[in-house]
Design goal:
The complex is a heterodimer of chains A (450) and B (443).
Chain A: E1 6-11, H1 13-16, H2 24-30, E2 35-40, E3 46-51, E4 57-64, H3 78-85, H4 97-104, E5 108-113, E6 118-125, H5 129-141, H6 147-165, H7 168-180, H8 194-198, H9 202-212, E7 218-224, H10 228-237, E8 264-268, E9 275-281, H11 290-304, H12 312-319, E10 323-332, E11 337-345, H13 351-367, H14 372-389, H15 393-405, H16 410-414, H17 416-421, H18 425-435, E12 441-448
Parallel strand pairs in A: 3-7, 8-12
Antiparallel strand pairs in A: 1-2, 2-3, 4-6, 4-7, 5-6, 9-11, 9-12, 10-11
Chain B: H1 9-18, E1 32-35, E2 41-46, E3 52-60, H2 73-79, H3 90-99, E4 103-108, E5 112-120, H4 124-136, H5 142-159, H6 163-176, H7 185-192, H8 197-207, E6 213-219, H9 223-234, E7 256-260, E8 266-273, H10 279-293, H11 299-306, E9 314-321, E10 324-333, H12 338-355, H13 359-378, H14 380-392, H15 397-401, H16 403-408, H17 412-422, E11 429-434
Parallel strand pairs in B: 2-6, 7-11
Antiparallel strand pairs in B: 1-2, 3-5, 3-6, 4-5, 8-10, 8-11, 9-10
Helix pairs in contact in B: 1-13, 2-8, 4-9, 5-7, 10-17, 11-12, 12-17
Chain lengths: 450, 443
């Protein structure tokens, strides 16, 4: 196959940061943004290379654009189950050959499945990158799967599911999502239902594999001590020779169900105190304007931190002293997504009182939009946190994979600091009015049983 | 949502760190022992590769040195470390810290109170000024104490209700009896109500002193600056510490206890107290642990999960404090398969004790060791922790610098001899939580 590589390079941070609200030292640091190369092979494989040569290590991640959210109800859990089955070996590299290769080099590997993606991760010394890429490319299309492999691995997956369900917070979260997204895939955990998992057999699993595991449905992100030329050269002769899938389905997600009106209440003798959270359901990621993303992140951060007196933490934990902890959160996703505010009450606080506290907190957040100084502090804080996080090439490329696999642009990642620094009070006012509305809201409460 | 659980992460990370400073490009990472003008010793790995400075200031003693009637006071005192200083109340202090993205906090761990500090180099003076303030003029405000007590109460109450936590506590009690290393949330909860700001001041004066202070630093800081910083911090500490004598744990007879609970999975812990290992044996045990459960090709992972699908995650390894040495394992399996999973685990451990590692396993360990050394360098935090822990154990930097070469010299005979000592299922104390059916056969 002839290769036509479309690539471009750019520096992430330098152009991005010019905002005056950043403190001077941070502005200087921000100029050293990520050095990135973004290319696409002619068979459709997207390749992103992030160079960081401080340590002779590489992080290699292959992301497939398929996750729990792409499964119809009735076959929930197939994406995650298949993630496990990808470790079963191929004709050329049977059984644990790949695992032995990684272990012998002292590398580390794992794989993950979310609602929006399935990804395979290796961190290794940089030598033998070519062998690693050949192994990962090999299992994109040559997996060997026996009935016994399926049966045995089903056992491990069911144990993973049961293990989660011994934790009361997982039980709460599962119930909450079912209430937040009734009769929708979002309402079932990524790992799926036991009934669906038990019904899975080899042939439909392999059909799933052939449909989704293809170069034109994948994104390769490599970070660390390597060069774009090296990665692209190896990618061409490993991944590049794999034919694209001609029958790749369009990622059409079913529309979100109408939000439920009834709050979700979970009573358990395994909780010691009451905790309650209001979840505002967001539109699908593609329908949230880019201009709203940084203000949503800032709004959630304000409630987590110590710097804003009307945020949930300052108000409930420090100010009124009615909660032991309080939080804000922003979780975008291809389908749905949530902006959330909540707290864990001190012992003895009744459900009625907690409900009132939550209402008043939301009112305070809606009413008291922070001033420019507070906003500038948030931007500085986030930038410093970013610099610390980018100390690990693995963390940086995971950010790329997460965003690209759910349809965001690489520039959405590299421009985030600048967009955060530019957030104004008017932006916050707009997103509060748009997203913090009663029709989007569902309250979930965990109540201790005496 | 991963095929490989995080049980093993910590040990793997430590193994990786252990190898950081040897061979190849990593050899550039040299530990300097810095002695400040004021006489404070600090271990330093200076590097300008990333614009971050990480410090660990550890005070040997920790919760094991708490007064018997105030369990939890070390943790509470450490928690209050960043809750305001001088003219800054807690919110002012924390907001300033967060604004510059610094880490300033402390943990009251069983063996030490450890202060964590890290900052982007661009803000180092501002960040260090905050750290110094926390050393010079801690506030221990009563209102903040009330707030942190609420948080601790939640932690203790949750530990009394969470199945995995209940299992861990009960297992500790079976293994170590009434020894102080056993975490008892009920006793902590009762003591919590009695702890006052004065108790925090007393705990601080006793647990954070110049004579039990150990410092490590990694990153963009030179020896002179580090020395000056160490002096400025030490200047505000009391000189010495009267240590309460500490007794080692005593091995008890094997026991089995079951906590009946309606759970989808049966949780199992097993293990025993072992004689204190020598420095060399602690190197050997790294090899043994790695071969038994150090990755996706390790024996337990293969036998219990890959071949039989009985568990999602399983771990079994050597764990020690300055007062205890033990071998401890844990897994979860469905009620119907928990007994089989335990039997399979025992068989795997016995086989290792009887036959030792294969030549292939040992060879794989050696090549892996060469690669793993790189991982530790990625994390300044990990390297700083490791240095301060080695320093607290009274070992020299050479221990770290030769660790990797010592590890790859470990022989099959050494591994098997240690396996015989540690892997004795007939000596294991076992605890299960759930509704296993059939019941576990623990001997």
């Amino acid at each position: 196959m002839q290769m036509h590589i479309n690539r471009r390079s750019f520096m992430g941070g330098a152009a991005a940061v010019g905002a005056t609200s950043l403190a001077a030292p941070c502005r200087a640091l921000a100029a050293a943004g990520p050095e990135l190369t973004d290319a696409t092979l002619s068979n459709g494989l997207r390749v992103v290379v992030y160079r960081d040569d401080r340590i002779p290590l590489i992080t290699h991640q292959l992301w497939y654009r398929v996750g729990g959210g792409d499964e119809p109800l009735g076959v929930t859990g197939i994406a995650h189950f298949f993630e496990h089955l990808m470790f079963k070996g191929t004709l050329r590299n049977p059984g644990g050959t790949f695992n032995r290769f990684v272990d012998r080099l002292g590398g580390a590997q794992n794989a993950f499945t979310s609602m929006d993606a399935t990804w395979f991760v290796q961190r290794m010394p940089k030598r033998q990158l070519a062998d690693l890429m050949a192994l990962e490319a090999d299992r994109m299309t040559h997996l060997q799967l026996s009935d016994a492999d399926v049966t045995t691995e089903l056992g491990a997956v069911l144990e993973e599911k049961r293990g989660g369900e011994t934790n009361v917070n997982v039980l709460f979260s599962n119930g909450l999502r079912a209430a937040l997204y009734p009769n929708h895939r979002n309402g079932v955990p990524v790992i799926g239902t036991e009934q669906d998992l038990r019904a899975m057999t080899r042939d439909p699993l392999l059909a799933f594999y052939r449909r989704y595991y293809a170069p034109n449905n994948a994104i390769l992100v490599v970070g660390g001590d390597t060069t774009p030329d090296e990665v692209l050269k190896i990618a061409e002769r490993t991944y590049g020779v794999i034919a694209p899938s001609a029958s790749l389905p369009v990622r059409a997600r079913p529309p979100l169900p109408a939000p439920p009106r009834e709050p979700f209440r979970f009573e358990t003798n395994r909780a010691s105190t009451l905790s309650t959270t209001v979840y505002y359901r967001l539109p699908d990621l593609a329908d949230v304007p880019l201009a709203d993303m940084a203000p949503l992140g800032a709004l959630a951060t304000l409630s987590n931190g110590f710097g804003f007196e009307h945020g949930a933490y300052r108000r409930l934990v420090q100010g009124q002293r009615v909660a032991s902890t309080a939080w804000g959160g922003f979780s975008p996703a291809m389908t749905g997504g949530e902006l959330a505010f909540g707290f864990q009450a001190l012992p003895g606080i009744s459900e009625d009182k907690a409900r009132q506290m939550l209402d008043e907190t939301i009112d305070a957040i809606r009413t008291h939009v922070p001033d420019d100084t507070t906003l500038a502090d948030i931007a500085t804080q986030s930038l410093a946190a970013d610099i610390r996080a980018s100390d690990s090439a693995a963390a940086v490329v995971t950010g790329f994979g997460t965003m690209l696999s759910r349809g965001q642009k690489l520039s959405d990642y590299t421009s985030y600091r600048a967009r955060l620094a530019a957030v104004t009070r008017a932006d916050l006012r707009r997103i509060i009015d748009t997203y913090m509305t009663p029709e989007r809201a569902l309250v979930g409460t965990m109540v201790p049983k005496a | 949502m991963a095929p490989f659980s995080t049980f093993r992460r910590l040990r793997i990370a430590i193994a990786a760190l252990a190898l950081v400073l040897l061979a190849g490009p990593a050899a550039a990472q040299k530990i300097s022992v810095v002695t400040s003008p004021g006489g404070v010793t600090a271990w330093l790995v200076q590097s300008t590769a990333s614009p971050i400075i990480t410090l660990r200031i550890a005070f040997k003693g920790g919760a094991l040195q708490e007064p018997d009637d105030k369990p939890g006071v070390a943790a509470l005192m450490a928690y209050a470390f960043n809750e305001g200083a001088g003219d800054m109340d807690a919110m002012t202090f924390l907001a300033r810290r967060d604004r510059i993205g610094a880490t300033i906090g402390a943990q009251g761990a069983p063996e030490a109170v450890v202060v964590n500090f890290s900052t982007v180099a661009a803000y180092r003076d501002e960040a260090f000024a905050l750290l110094e303030k926390a050393f010079v003029a801690p506030r221990f405000d009563a209102d903040r104490l009330a707030i942190s007590k609420a948080s601790f109460r939640n932690t203790y109450e949750t530990a009394m209700r969470d199945p995995a936590a209940m299992m861990g506590q009960t297992f500790q009690r079976l293994l170590y009896g009434q020894h102080k290393i056993v975490f008892d949330p009920k006793a902590h909860l009762a003591a919590l109500e009695t702890i006052t700001p004065d108790d925090l001041r007393a705990a601080r004066a006793r647990l954070m002193t110049r004579s039990n202070m150990y410092v490590s630093a990694v990153g963009d800081i030179d020896a002179a600056t580090l020395g000056a910083w160490a002096d400025r911090l030490a200047a505000h500490l009391p000189a010495g510490m009267q240590n309460t004598p500490e007794a080692r744990v005593v091995a008890a007879a094997p026991r089995y206890e079951h906590i009946d609970m309606d759970l989808p999975q049966t949780l199992v812990m097993f293990g025993h107290v072992v004689p204190q290992l020598s420095v060399q044996e602690r190197r050997v045990v790294n090899v043994l642990d790695s071969i038994l459960n150090g990755g996706m090709t390790s024996r337990l992972f293969m036998d219990v999960r890959v071949k039989r699908g009985l568990v999602y995650g399983i771990s079994a390894d050597y764990a020690y404090t300055r007062l205890s040495d033990a071998y401890i394992g844990v897994f979860g399996s469905a009620p119907g398969t928990a007994a089989t999973a335990l039997g399979t685990t025992y068989a795997t451990l016995r086989q290792m004790a009887e036959q030792g590692p294969t030549a292939d396993e040992l060879a794989a360990y050696r090549t892996a060791a060469e690669g793993r050394l790189l991982f530790g360098i990625e994390s300044s935090e990990g390297l700083a922790n490791w240095m301060v822990n080695v320093a607290m154990r009274g070992l020299p930097p050479a221990y770290i610098e030769t660790y990797a070469s010592e590890l790859v010299r470990v022989s099959a005979d050494e591994v098997q001899a240690l396996a015989k000592k540690l892997l004795q299922p007939e000596m294991f104390t076992v605890i299960s939580v759930g509704k296993p059916n059939p019941p576990l056969a623990v001997r």
